Amino acid sequence: MNSPRCFKINSADNVATMLDDAEGGAVSVLGDASQHSIELREPVKLGHKVALRDIPCGQAVVKFGVAIGRASRDIRAGEWVHLHNLASNFDQRSQTLDLHTGAATDTRYE
Question: Do the Cβ atoms of 50 and 80 come closer than 8 Å?
Answer without folding.
Answer: yes
